[in-house]
Every structure is written in C-alpha cells, then in structure tokens.
Design brief:
The complex is a heterodimer of chains A (about 300) and B (about 800). With about 300 residues, chain A is an alpha/beta fold. Chain A is built from 12 helices and 13 strands. Chain A has helices spanning about 60-65, 90, 105-115, 120-125, 140-150, 165-170, 190-195, 200-210, 230-240, 260-265, 280-285, 285-290; strands at about 1-10, 20-25, 45-50, 70, 75-80, 100, 105, 125-130, 155-160, 180, 215-220, 245-250, 295-300. In chain A, the strands form 3 sheets. Chain A has a 9-stranded mixed β-sheet. In chain A, strands 3-6 form a two-stranded antiparallel ribbon. Chain A has a two-stranded antiparallel ribbon with strand order 4-5. In chain A, α6 links the parallel β9 (about 155-160) and β10. In chain B, α2 (about 35-45) packs across α3 (about 50-65), α12 (about 260-275) runs parallel beside α15 and α25 (about 560-575) crosses α28. The radius of gyration of chain B is 26 Å and the shape is globular. Classes of the chains: A alpha/beta (about 300), B alpha/beta (about 800). The interface of A and B includes residues 116 and 120 of A.
Chain lengths: ~300, ~800
C-alpha cells in the first residue's frame, strides 16, 4: 500500500521513548491556527519555496508552463493560484530553493528505512513513530504499518488527534504499543474556531481508546489565546481524569514553524507569538496538572 | 573550578606552547641549553661508540641544565631553562633553530652560539644524511609536502611506551644493579662470530648505565634545589612543602615509589627524559588508572594516609606540568598541530588481562580532575566496553557535556581484535593504550619507540590523477603522468590512475621514512629509554634497533573528499553520462567559476554519511584502495604499513594546497576534518545515519584506528533524558563496531559569539582532532572549520 509522507526523521527523541524514526504522514482533517507542521495539512505533494537559497538564476521561471513563477523586484515569486503542482520548477532548481514536500512510499519501503536504525532502537528502547499530519487520515496505511511493525518487533508509537472513525482506532489498537493522544480543548465551539472542526469525535474516541488500551498518553498543546487560561486547562485536566490515560505531556507553543509557513507562502497567525520556554511552562502550567497521580512531562 | 587555590594559581601561570597558525600563542623561545651541552659533549667524545656518545651527551645536559621549581608546585621537573622555553635538538636538523632565529624567538645573547652549534652539526644532522640518499626530483616532492609528508628527518619525532611496572617496581637503582649484573656476564670476551653482537651489547649496557645514573643525579639536583629554596623562604607551610619535595626527589626515581605522590613524581622524571630530553617524542601511551592505582589504593582507600581531594590536587598538578610541555616544531607540524603542541593522550578504562572491567576509583578521579582543572592537555581516551562501570560512563557524559571534547571513546570490541591482528596475544591486546590520538598499542612493550607516523593526502593524489600528475595550484609536476582526464574512458580507468598516484606517493614516503630510521638507529639511540624495558637486557639492542616487527602507520587526511569525489564522477560522468571528463576537467581548472550549475549537480550527487548505499559503497572502495596500496609498502624491517584515516588539522593546511574537487568543494577550502566523518554539511539525516555509514567500514581492518567527530547541540545531551540518550547512543555505537568517536557539544551560536567576543570565552575548549584546544588558540580558519561541522540538533 502507498502512503504519502513529508519526512522520515531519524534520531527522533521527542516522539516517544528512546531513539526513534518518525514518519510524518501528510494530510490532516484539522487546520489548527498554531499548527507546527503546516506542510502536513494537505494530503498531496506541495511546493516549498526557500527564498534564502534562491540565486535568481530564473531556471524556474523558464521551466514553469503556467507562468506561475515570476521575478518581481529581484525576488522569485510563485503565484500559488496559477500553480498546478506539476513540479517542473522543482526539477529545474539546482540550489534547493524549490522543493517538493510530500512523497508517496510503499509501507514496505517505510519499514525498511526504519529498520536501518534498529541498533539504536534496540539499545534505547525506541522504535518507530507515526506522526503527521494525522496518521488516521490514511487509516489503511496505519493499519498495515502496525501489523508489519508488530511482525518485525518494532516498537510502534502513533501520535494522533483522534479525529477518525472509531473502528480505525479499534482495529489497530492491539498492534500499537503507545498512543500519543492530543487533547486540545474541551469547549466545542472554541475548538471549531481554532481548528476548523468539532472536538466531539476526538474526545469520545479518547474515552473509548483508553478503555481498551493500556498505553495512551495525553498530549496537551499549550497555545496562547486558545487554551492557556487556568480555567481551560482545568477543564482539560478534568476530562483527562475521566479517562484512563497513563501519562500527561504538556507541549508548550513554539514558533519554529514560521519559516515553513513562509516556504508555503501561507499566512501564519502565530508568527509573532513568542515561544513558551520550558522554565515558564514548569512554573505556570505544570502545577495545574500535578498531584493527580499522573507522571507529567514537558515537551514530550 | 580547580580543586584548590594552588592549582588555580599554577594554571594561571602556565605558558602554553600552543601552535596557532604558523607560530605560537604565548611568548615562547627556543632554549639553547640542550643544544649547547649536547654539542659540547659531542666535541669531547669523538671516536667513542655512538650510543655512548648519546648517553654522555644526555649526562652532560642533565648535570648542567637550569632547573627550576615554581612557587606552589608539589610536583617538579622541567625540560628547558624557563617555562617559556622549548628544548633544541641540534642533531636532527637546523630547521627549527633557523626558524626561531628568523622569528627572533631566541635569547639574543645566544645568537652567535646558536650559529656555532649549527656549524658544528653541518653534514652531521639526520636531515642532511637522509637528503643525500634521494634524487633532486624526489627530494623536491618530499620537501614540497603536498600529497605526501614524510618529514621526520626534518622534525625528528618519535613515540614511546616504557614499562612502568618494571621501572617503578625496581627503581632506577634496581635497574642499574640489573645492568651491572649483565655487564658482569660480559666481562669475558668471546673469540668467535658473536664479537660484533658482544660489542654492541657491551656498548649499549655501558651507555644505559651512564644515562640511568645521570637521571638519578638529575633528580638529586631537584632535591638540592628544593632544600636551597626552603632555606630562602619565610613561609613555614611552603618550607615544609619544599622539604617534602626534597625528600621525594632524593628517593625517586632511584628507588621504587611507595606513595601516590611519589609515583606521580617518578613518572614526571622518567617521562620528561624519555619523551623530551633524550629525544623528542609525543603521546603518553600509558594506562594511568592502571599504573598508578596500586599507590592510589594504598594511600587513599586502604591506609587512608591521604584524602581523595589531595589525590585530585596532585592529578591537577600533573596535568599542569604536562600542559606546559612543548616543542619548537618545524613549520609543517606547526601548521598541522593547530591549538596544541604535543598529542598527549592519557588512556583510562578498558579491561584487565582477564577481560574484566579494569576501571576503578582512580578512573573516576581522573575524570573529576580533568573536569575541574579544565586544560586542553592531556587529553583523555576512555576505553569503552560493555562491562564498563556505568558510573564511569556517566562521569564521561558529565565531562563531554561541558563541551571540552573529552574523553574520546574508543571501542574495546574493535581495539582488542585489532591489536591481535597485529600479532599481540590476548593478554597484551587487553592492555591497550593509545600512542597518540588514535593508534592503539600494547602499553609497556617496545612497540613504538622506533617508529612514528607520517602523512598522506589522498584528495591531492586524486587531484594528480585527474590532472596527469600535475599539482593544480602550483603547476608543478608532483606525480607520475597517469593521463589527462579525456583519456580516462571508464570509471575503472579513473580509479586506476588514482591508485597509481597513491602508490607513487606512498612508496616515496615510505622510503623517506625507512632511510630516516636507518640513520636514527645509527645516530639517535635512546640508551635511557632502552633501560626502561627489562627485555632490552635480553635483546641486547637499543630500543631503536629491536627487530621485532610492529605496525608502522600513515595518517590519511581527507579520505572522505576522495570518496565523495569518486562517487560524483561515477554517478554523473559514467552512470548518468550527464557530463564528460573533459567538461569536468574544465570546471575543476576554472575552480567551478562559471560552472555553478554543474557544481550544484556534483554537490547533490550521493555523499558519504547519509546511510546511502551508493555513496557508501564507493567510499568503501576508496578506503580500501588506500589501504591496499599502503599495505604494499614495507618499512626497513619488513613491517607492513597501515593507514589511519584522520586529519588532525591537516585538512586546513592541505586544503589550502588542493584545487577544486569533484565533490563540489572549491580550491583552497578545507578538506574533510576527520577520518571517517562526513564532509561538513553533506550529512543530512542526523547522527544515526552518520554512524550507519561509518559502520560500513571495517574498523578492525584499519589497524591503527579511524577518527570520527560528532558535533551535538547542547540540548541533545541536556537533563536526565540527555544522559539516558547518551548512554544508549554509546551502546549502539559500540554494537556497530566503530573504533572511535569524540564529541563537540557547543552550540553554533556560542562559537560564533566567541569569535566576536574572545575575551568572554578564555576558557572555552573545543575538540579539534584527536585532542582538544582553547577556542581562542585557534586561527579564524580553524574556528570556522569547527563551526562548519554539522551540528546534530533535535527536530
């Protein structure tokens, strides 16, 4: 089976235990305003344009059949409305300024790539993580990779927001060692405002998944202006306590994704928002989750 | 922080002999004394056997040289007249003296005497004797130091690993008694074909006796000096310290040491002579946590006559003594030892002769002291194995995290079979120490006294192969005519031309080396060092002349540049047929100027370090051809050379001499900075992909080691999580049978800031090659080279 991904990240140490190889699936039902991986939202290949690599050689301008790439005041510009994603400009660029993000691989290719680091996985208690995007946007691929990982003894973590048909989770749960499960907000309206969809399916699935699986970690992104008030985080904690999560990870907002938005010529509403430091998160947010019997981590 | 005010103060008064660019960081000078007394003695001993002349010259030097004891010192010893001076070896070559005079790095009143000394040695130096053996054309290539640098006839560099268990358990007086007993046996002259052997033995033993006795007397001079200084001081505490120094120097090295402090003082006396005054040698080649442990255990753990803190202070004092040592190297070495002067590597950890963990409390103390005193020398090499006490690895982690680049990790799983493949038995192989940065040796046997490494630059050989033997930047013909690029019709032909250039350079270098050793055996004997091996009494030959074969080696700089270049040629010219060899030739001649699009294709070709099988396969063959051609060269005893892929800082010097390469590198840019590390910036998939690429090379095959740099962002190692990650990373590294790894853990931001505000970073230490250096002691180019190393961050 084929699966579209943006990247295989080796030596990944923040997406589950040990040293891992993380596979970023492309495609997501949500469109979170603060999204840290904007290139994983659309389920098809896109074009990154990295202006600082551009040498103004105009090879892309010549290559584009739609005249979508032009030179404006010493800057190459891609008109995204005209662009048909034919990727001719990518082939023309020799300086790595125009790149495709998103490529299709077979599940076997992905597993083989993961196995390249098996010595590191074995020594560190690591393995493979499927992240994204939303892995369950391509549910068949998750299911297939989970079976393959199980067969080959690869520890598997899936990082999900849970917005998928319950049967997708139910079918795969027994082949997945650990879930990293996002709990973003409890209020449905606010969730819809900031992510584009309702949180009902996600919260219901969280409750059900923790009933049938003993390794589900709650991951709470802390996003300024969205859920960082004491009240909102309090609600999240209350919800967590109604389920059977094994641990809580707080993920404070960072603005490292700003560059990637620019590469996609997308507007980033959080571009001017400062990152939350680990120290600040420890002082400000950690206490709201403490003393409830959960192991808590900051930053995953 | 240093453990005491004493060591903090002594550290602040160190005069570093660090090479920075062409010269030295501190205000240093070439000392005339060793040259003076050596020459005076040689004038007096004309006609005597050479080995006896060497011993008498040593004796004259030791009895007359200026001694000093610095305020606050607990351990004493010096090799030149002040701590700012470096010794002069007139018998090797006049090169460093001429350099020192030109740069006004001598005491002016000695100028005439320096000239007289050089006059006396005219025609008698090793350099001149060696040069006479080569044709003018060959000599030009030897002295050009482009693709090959075999310069010991000019620099006179060697190594040594005395048997400290033998030496310390007998004391020099005990050794003298043994020599006397052997001489006694030689009182009856044979009347047969053994006469030559008999005389050689008798001359050597007599010379050893003179040399060993001279060292005991030299130590006694320190004792006398300490008493003198004690008389002059009014500080009762210092007076007592000086009297203790006087007591110890009267006892060791004549008698066996009994305390930890006596053992360290014993070591200084022996080491300063065998590595510095008798001959110029580098390295330490000893397992410190093994040779000194019995004394440490007795004083600190059993009898409790001294505290652990006192032992740590003594280690710090010893490190300060070692940090101040140095030599006035010739230019080629000044260039290539950026940020250091001697490659003093202390070996710790590893296994005992039964294969069990040999680490102990002294191992931990050495790591503590190294962290607290924070000096660039000596450097620490930790022998890792899977039974190593986890506390040792955790302490190593603590030290590595400070960014000092120490300790480097060496893998016993490779080191031990590697030594066995050289002919060591299992017990010997388990007693491994590192001669200099990399090369493993068996500690305490005469494996390296008579040999040292020399250098080959494979990318420059490749350049010659792609330019019909002509060096691109100088236009000089330095290699055989292997054809212009357009006559090379297949990848195999390119590879064959490369092989021929390697073969020519290696053969010439090896011959220069062997001729040097021939003359060293005749004129550069080491009678004192010879006395430090019990087996000398049996063998009856100077350590330089033992016929036992060991592995001489060649440092190869920039092998990865060759590998990446060959990969790009194979892919773009012969597989994809996108470019012709003529087009490539034109682009390289033009230094890629006006060929930028083409250059991007060559940069984007597969590269080593990405776990990419295409690139890694070519790299393997590129490593192998160097190794095969190296092995074909034999030294004067029939020993086969092996190669050590490591650049030290040669990647800068030789980078300046290398034209554009098919890897996409431009002329005069650095070459790759280690032995098996990817070219900076060309590895794109993180540290595990690097290790996987590196693990495809058979490290046991490289009998003298392979150097791997990894630069990690400080955040990777932060906190408990970082500690756990480090442990697991090291275990995986060991599983992959990689020989060595060393770390730079300083962020790019911090390094760049240090370039702008050097005053804020006087204590910033970074890993350069097989050693560490103060960042401020490096040239801008060397600093840039370290910043350029790909920083492995977390995403």
């Amino acid at each position: 089976m084929n699966v579209i991904i943006t990247q295989m990240q080796r030596f990944s140490v923040n997406d589950g235990p040990g040293i891992r190889t993380t596979c970023f699936f492309k495609g997501c039902p949500l469109e979170c305003r603060w999204c840290h991986n904007p290139e994983t939202q659309m389920p098809f290949p896109e074009v990154f344009f990295k202006e600082n690599f551009c040498k103004l050689c105009e090879a892309c301008v010549a290559a584009c059949p739609q005249q979508a790439v032009t030179l404006v005041r010493e800057h190459a510009v891609i008109n995204r409305l005209k662009c048909t994603l034919c990727m001719k400009c990518v082939d023309a660029c020799k300086y790595g300024a125009i790149e495709t993000t998103g490529k299709s691989y077979t599940t076997e290719e992905i597993i083989q790539y993961v196995l390249r680091d098996q010595v590191f996985h074995a020594r560190s208690g690591g393995g493979m993580t499927i992240s994204g995007g939303e892995p369950y946007y391509q549910p068949g691929a998750v299911a297939e990779l989970a079976v393959m990982a199980k067969e080959r003894g690869i520890h598997l973590v899936v990082d999900t927001c849970g917005h998928t048909d319950w049967t997708n989770l139910e079918k795969t749960a027994s082949n997945i060692d650990l879930f990293l499960y996002d709990i973003k907000h409890i209020d449905e309206e606010k969730h819809r405002n900031f992510t584009g969809i309702s949180n009902r399916m996600s919260l219901e699935n969280a409750a059900r998944l923790t009933q049938i699986h003993d390794g589900v970690v709650a991951r709470v992104p802390i996003i300024p202006g969205f859920n960082d008030s004491a009240e909102e985080l309090g609600e999240i904690m209350k919800f967590i306590e109604t389920c059977r999560f094994t641990r809580i990870d707080l993920l404070p907002f960072h603005n490292f994704a700003t560059a990637k938005y620019a590469w996609l010529n997308k507007n980033y509403l959080y571009a001017n928002q400062n990152s939350i430091s680990k120290e600040y998160a420890e002082e400000q947010y950690l206490p709201m989750f403490q003393n409830k019997g959960y192991e808590i981590g900051i930053g995953g | 922080m240093p453990i005491s005010n004493r060591t903090a103060d002594l550290k602040s008064r160190i005069v570093y002999k660090t090479c920075q660019g062409d010269w030295f960081t501190d205000d240093v000078k070439l000392c005339i004394e060793r040259g003076r007394y050596w020459t005076e003695s040689y004038k007096e001993t004309v006609g005597e056997p050479e080995v006896i002349r060497r011993a008498k010259a040593l004796e004259k030097t030791l009895l007359n040289m200026t001694l000093y004891i610095k305020d606050g010192e607990l351990l004493v010893g010096n090799i030149a007249s002040t701590s700012a001076h470096m010794p002069y070896y007139p018998e090797i070559s006049t090169e460093s003296a001429r350099d020192a005079i030109r740069a006004k790095l001598i005491d002016e009143e000695n100028l005439d005497e320096f000239n007289e000394i050089m006059d006396f040695w005219k025609g008698k130096t090793i350099n001149q004797m060696v040069e006479k053996e080569f044709s003018e054309e060959e000599l030009k290539i030897i002295n050009a130091c482009v693709q090959v640098a075999s310069v010991d006839h000019r620099g006179g560099h060697t190594l040594g690993s005395p048997d400290y268990f033998y030496t310390m358990s007998n004391g020099l007086n005990g050794i003298l008694a043994k020599i006397d007993a052997e001489l006694e046996k030689l009182s009856v002259m044979p009347c047969d074909e053994t006469m030559g052997e008999f005389l050689e033995k008798r001359h050597l033993f007599r010379a050893m006796k003179i040399a060993v006795y001279a060292v005991v007397k030299w130590a006694q001079r320190y004792s006398d000096l300490a008493i003198e200084k004690a008389k002059q001081t009014n500080d009762p505490a210092r007076k007592a310290e000086l009297m203790e120094i006087a007591r110890i120097c009267a006892k060791v090295p004549g008698n066996p040491p009994e305390t930890f402090r006596e053992a360290l003082q014993f070591f200084i006396f022996i080491h300063f002579i065998d590595h510095h005054i008798e001959r110029l040698a580098t390295g330490i080649s000893q397992r410190f946590d093994q040779i000194f442990y019995p004394y440490y255990k007795s004083d600190i753990l059993d009898k409790r006559t001294a505290k652990r803190e006192e032992a740590q202070e003594l280690i710090e004092c010893l490190w300060i003594k070692l940090a101040e040592l140095g030599h006035f190297h010739i230019k080629e070495r000044r260039d290539t030892y950026q940020g250091t002067n001697l490659l003093q590597i202390i070996t710790i950890g590893g296994v005992d002769r039964f294969g069990q963990d040999a680490s102990n409390d002294l191992t931990l103390l050495i790591l503590d002291a190294t962290k607290s005193i924070r000096l660039t020398q000596p450097s620490i090499a930790l022998r890792y194995h899977n039974k190593l006490n986890p506390a040792v690895l955790d302490k190593a982690y603590d030290l590595i995290k400070t960014g000092m680049g120490m300790p480097s990790l060496h893998n016993d799983a490779v080191t031990i079979p590697l030594l066995m493949s050289l002919g060591a038995n299992i017990e010997q192989a388990r007693n491994a120490a590192f001669a200099v940065c990399m090369a493993p040796i068996v500690a305490g046997i005469n494996m390296i006294s008579k040999r040292h490494a020399w250098n080959l630059q494979p990318p420059l050989c490749l350049e010659l192969a792609l330019n019909n033997g002509v060096h691109r930047l100088s236009g000089r013909k330095l290699g055989p005519a292997t054809g212009m690029p357009d006559s090379l019709n297949t990848y195999e032909e390119v590879f064959e031309a490369y092989r021929q250039q390697l073969s020519y350079a290696l053969n010439l270098g090896a011959r220069a080396r062997s001729v040097t050793r021939h003359y060293e055996i005749k004129f550069m004997q080491r009678p004192f060092t010879s006395a430090l091996f019990e087996r000398t009494l049996e063998v009856g030959k100077d350590v330089m002349a033992w016929e036992e074969v060991c592995a001489p080696w060649i440092n190869t700089c920039g092998q990865i540049d060759s590998a990446d270049s060959l990969t790009a040629i194979k892919k773009l010219v012969f597989d994809d047929k996108k470019y012709t060899m003529s087009e490539l030739h034109a682009a390289l001649e033009a230094d890629w100027v006006s060929h930028e699009d083409m250059r991007q294709d060559f940069i984007n070709a597969p590269k080593f370090g990405n776990d990419d099988d295409y690139a890694d396969e070519v790299a393997k063959s590129a490593f192998l051809v160097v190794d095969e051609e190296t092995y074909k060269c034999q030294d004067y005893l029939g020993g086969h050379y092996t190669n050590v892929p490591q650049s030290v800082t040669r990647h800068m010097r030789y980078g300046l001499l290398a034209g554009a390469l098919p890897s996409g590198r431009k002329a005069r840019e650095f070459l790759s900075d280690a032995g098996v590390s990817p070219y900076p910036g060309y590895d794109k998939y993180g540290p595990t992909a690097v290790l996987m690429s590196v693990s495809k090379i058979d490290h046991v095959h490289y009998k003298r080691g392979t150097l791997l740099n990894q630069r990690l962002a400080p955040a990777v190692l932060a906190g408990e999580k970082g500690k756990l990650l480090f442990r697991n990373y090291v275990k995986a590294w060991a599983d992959l049978n990689i020989f060595h790894v060393q770390f730079n853990v300083v962020s790019s931001e911090e390094l760049k800031d240090a370039q702008i505000h050097p005053e804020k970073y006087s204590d910033l230490i970074v890993r350069v090659a097989g050693y560490s250096a103060y960042f401020n002691h490096l040239t801008k180019a060397a600093q840039d080279s370290i910043i350029q190393r790909t920083e492995q961050v977390l995403v």
